[in-house]
Structure prediction request, 95 residues.
Amino acid sequence: MWCAEKEISFSSLEEMTQMPEIKKRFQKEIARFNKYFGATEQIKRFELMADEWSIETGELTANLKLKRSFICNKYKSLIDKIFDLKTNASVNEES
Prediction:
């Protein structure tokens, strides 16, 4: 695991997903792949989640397909945060 190699300790997945060094690592990986996509296809904003999606938690069907409607309802506040233009305007200015 990357965290073990970098000697980054954490007590929960929630704690790990909020750590700046973890977010920077994901941003680096996203940037590496974004160069293969057009501007409208690139990931601009993201949030890390500690939740594991599964059939049992309701995000996946028995065929392991996403239950989009369920996901949109369950994670509405997080989706709204990602797409909030007022919040993201300041984030984009910092980059």
